[in-house]
């Protein structure tokens, strides 16, 4: 036999595709040719595979070996094909009967000594195999717990190429996935740690309940970072679909914590202000990898000292904030990653940032305008909640009796508000108020009466707010009503939404 075929999975972005690894061995000068749009790592697989086969006690066939990865028109990236390639070569040479591996998907990177090493992106790969109707998969032992997350898949693990060969030849057992690890400790930052800042806490609660973006402006020490870091603590846990999406993204980035559990807590990303555009939105040579905005999918992206970020990096966030996904075009092909995140911006009011506030500011009016002007109007227009925080007073800081409500209490109200919104918007296929298209808000039965929106209409007509701002304020009003247990927003809800949107009176 000179031909063999083994199944593997390739990734394009966060989507996996079943790949057939073909091996044809023909007489001629010894050589290895790989076709099917392989990247550099795949081209180097021929040397890794040859050394792994020899060091596993198997014979390398001294023939012309042609390896083809189908579909040939889809680019292939990474080293996850190594184990499948080695198996196909041994099968094509007649050294290994492949009947026990019929319909089995094989993933893994090979070391020169024959060890099978873990690879990135196993979770979306296994999910792709399940969608293609394959229910048996062999993965590196380091990825076994992650692969076992997908229901309906029989996962077996290997630590060496020799173990896989022994299984095929003699029926020796493969390794089982490890038992479920204990659940992670849910402890984290709590809102009770924040002194004072009633407006900031209210803004955080509204943002969490409706999925709204948030901007916090205030002097150093006012609590901007503390509030932002506690936003995940009041968000509901991710449901199954969202948890799979988030876990898959972290798997591709190689950032999954040990244990292989689904990520149920909303992720929190806080890149440094020196972060580049690719690190924020995704990039890299060949296949673009997810950036911070995608790693914060279904969670929080926090930009502390936002005016210190480069203008290009900030402006690159506009498209994913609007559409909930990021499209990256590269010479090697386009990639799309989900990016439905809550953006939280924190900024000092001026470069000198005196803790005492504006009364002691040493900056000229021009310097203040230039500093905050780094946050462009189109970007800020996409931020639903924009509040100004005042310096914390000594009484608020020192008196334990005035400690704020804990995250648990706020999270309970947020959960109830989200359930109310999800039930209301179920007919249009949405769950959060922040996701509702503007036309739905302006049509019966959801259009608010003129008497309740008179102030808002006047601001739109005068040019004080944009049409996008009009819709975002209406969404905020719905969220406020949900938090307070009302079926529909009233005039007071709209006025509070205007205050939270514009920062007036804060």
UniProtKB/TrEMBL annotation:
InterPro entries recorded: AAA+_ATPase, CHLI-like, MCM_dom, Mg_chelat-rel, Mg_chelat-rel_C, Mg_chelatse_chII-like_cat_dom, P-loop_NTPase, Ribosomal_Su5_D2-typ_SF
Feature: compositional bias, Pro residues: 175-186
Source organism superkingdom: Bacteria
Pfam families, A to Z: ChlI, Mg_chelatase, Mg_chelatase_C
GO molecular-function terms, A-Z: ATP binding; DNA binding
Residues in MCM C-terminal AAA(+) ATPase domain copies: 274-349
Region span, Disordered: 172-195
Entry keyword set: ATP-binding, Nucleotide-binding
PANTHER family according to UniProt: COMPETENCE PROTEIN COMM, MAGNESIUM-CHELATASE SUBUNIT CHLI
Family to which the UniProt record says this protein belongs: Belongs to the Mg-chelatase subunits D/I family. ComM subfamily.
NCBIfam families linked: YifB family Mg chelatase-like AAA ATPase
Protein name: Magnesium chelatase family protein
UniProt organism field: Micromonospora coxensis
